[in-house]
Specification:
The chain is mostly helical. The protein contains 15 helices and no strands.
C-alpha cells in the first residue's frame, strides 16, 4: 500500500504543495518581518522585474516539453536539457557583458534572471519526466529556503542584498539537485541540433502566452513602482499578493497532474474532478480569511503589515477565477489550442493594464488589487465558458462537489 501511495501522482503533488505552503508561509512571515514593509517593497519590485524578464527570455522551451514528449522522440529529455544548459551559459555571458558596460543594477537583475530561467526550465521538464523526484526537490527547496530566511531573521541586519541572496541560493539549490540526476553522456549530441530550431519555433506562441499570464500576475507591482507609489505601500501590496499566490497552489496540486496526464491524453473526468475540488477548497479558504480578520495579520506579520489584509481580501475574489485558467489552460496547451489560450490571456492582460492605469493614481494599492480582480475574472470566465462549450461539459460537473468525490479522493490516493 505504501508503495502505491508513493507512486501516486495526486498524493505526491499534494504532499509537495502542502509542504511548500507550510514552509513557504513561515518563510514569508520571517522575510516580511526581517525586511520590513519598505525594503520588502524594493525586494518585490526587483523580483517582479526578474520574473517578467525571465518569462520573456525563457523562450517557452520547457512549456512545450510535454508536446514533444508525446511525439516519442528519442532522447527527448536530453535534447531539452541540452538546449536549456546552452541557453543558461549564453545568458550568463550576455548578462555579465551587458551589466558591466551599462549598469551594475542591471547586471544584478540579469544574473538573477538567468538563474531563474534555468531553474524554471529544469523544474518544468522534470515535472513531466519524474514527478516523484520533482516532489523531493520541492520539499528540500522549501526547507532550505525557510532555513536561509530564519538565519537572516535571527542574525543579520535588514538588507535588500541579503533578501535577494536568499532568492538566488534557493534557485541554485534546485539547479544542483536536478543536474545531479542527469546522464551527461547523453547530452549535446550533434543529432539534437535539428530539434533545437523546431523547439524554439513551436515554443514562441506558448512563450508569449506565458508572458501574458506573468504580466497579469506581476505588472501591478511594476506599475505601482512606475507611478511612484511609496515602497512601503508596495511592500504591503506584495504581501497580499504573496498570500494569494499560496492559495493558487491549491489548483496547482491538480494542474501538475493534469500536465503530466495530458501529455498522453485528454482526461476530461480528471479535469472536472480537479476543478470541483479546487473551487471548493478556495471558497473555504476565503471564508476562513473573512472570519480570521485583519487583527491576525498584525499578529503574524507585524503591525506595519496589518493593512495588507484589505489587499488580500480583494485579491482572493480573483483567485477563484484563476482556478479555471490554471487547470483548463493546461488542457488547451496540450490539446493544440495555443492560439485560443493566447487570445484569452491577451484580453486579460489588456484589461489589467488599462485598469491599473485608471485605478492606481486614484486608489494606489487598492486600485491595483481591483485591477487584478477584473483581469483574473475575465480570464477565468472565458476559459470556463470555452471549456464547457468545446468539450460538452455541464457546468454542474465543474463547480459543485459530488458525494462521490470524497470516495474518489481516497481511491486516487491509494491507487498507483
Amino acid at each position: 500500500m505504501n508503495k502505491k501511495i508513493m507512486n501516486n501522482d495526486y498524493f505526491l503533488s499534494m504532499i509537495s504543495k502542502f509542504l511548500n505552503i507550510l514552509f513557504g508561509f513561515f518563510s514569508l512571515i520571517l522575510l516580511n518581518r526581517y525586511l520590513g514593509a519598505a525594503i520588502k517593497g524594493k525586494y518585490s519590485t526587483v523580483i517582479n522585474y526578474v520574473t517578467i524578464i525571465s518569462s520573456i527570455f525563457q523562450l517557452g522551451i520547457s512549456i512545450v516539453y510535454s508536446k514533444f514528449k508525446r511525439k516519442n522522440i528519442e532522447n527527448c529529455f536530453s535534447i531539452f536539457i541540452s538546449l536549456s544548459i546552452i541557453q543558461f551559459i549564453l545568458y550568463l555571458f550576455f548578462s555579465i557583458f551587458l551589466g558591466l558596460f551599462i549598469d551594475v543594477k542591471l547586471l544584478i537583475i540579469l544574473l538573477i534572471s538567468s538563474v531563474a530561467i534555468f531553474t524554471t526550465q529544469l523544474r518544468y521538464i522534470n515535472l513531466v519526466e519524474n514527478i516523484k523526484y520533482n516532489t523531493l526537490v520541492v520539499i528540500i527547496m522549501s526547507v532550505f529556503n525557510f532555513a536561509f530566511t530564519l538565519i537572516a531573521f535571527l542574525f543579520l541586519e535588514k538588507s535588500l542584498t541579503v533578501g535577494l541572496t536568499i532568492y538566488v541560493l534557493k534557485d541554485c539549490l534546485i539547479i544542483f539537485m536536478y543536474l545531479f540526476k542527469i546522464e551527461y553522456k547523453k547530452l549535446f549530441k550533434r543529432k539534437y541540433n535539428k530539434y533545437y530550431f523546431q523547439i524554439l519555433k513551436d515554443a514562441f506562441l506558448p512563450m508569449i502566452s506565458n508572458l501574458l499570464i506573468i504580466l497579469n500576475y506581476k505588472i501591478d507591482v511594476v506599475m505601482l513602482n512606475q507611478f511612484n507609489v511609496d515602497y512601503e505601500l508596495i511592500g504591503l501590496y506584495s504581501l497580499g499578493l504573496s498570500i494569494s499566490e499560496y492559495i493558487w497552489i491549491i489548483p496547482d496540486i491538480f494542474k501538475d497532474v493534469v500536465q503530466k496526464r495530458t501529455a498522453v491524453n485528454n482526461p476530461i473526468s480528471t479535469i472536472n474532478f480537479s476543478l470541483r475540488c479546487s473551487s471548493t477548497i478556495v471558497i473555504i479558504c476565503y471564508i476562513v480569511l473573512i472570519i480570521v480578520g485583519r487583527n491576525l495579520f498584525g499578529l503574524i506579520f507585524g503591525n506595519e503589515f496589518i493593512d495588507s489584509y484589505n489587499v488580500t481580501k480583494i485579491l482572493f475574489i480573483g483567485v477563484y477565477s484563476m482556478i479555471f485558467y490554471k487547470i483548463i489552460g493546461q488542457l488547451f496547451i496540450s490539446d493544440n489550442k495555443s492560439k485560443q489560450y493566447f487570445i484569452i490571456l491577451f484580453i486579460g492582460t489588456i484589461v489589467n493594464i488599462i485598469a491599473n492605469i485608471i485605478l492606481i493614481p486614484k486608489m494606489d494599492i487598492i486600485g491595483a488589487s481591483i485591477a487584478s480582480v477584473f483581469s483574473y475574472t475575465a480570464i477565468g470566465i472565458i476559459f470556463l465558458v470555452m471549456y464547457l462549450c468545446q468539450y460538452n461539459v455541464n457546468i454542474i460537473d465543474v463547480l459543485i462537489v459530488k458525494k462521490s468525490d470524497f470516495n474518489n479522493i481516497k481511491k486516487v490516493i491509494f491507487r498507483k
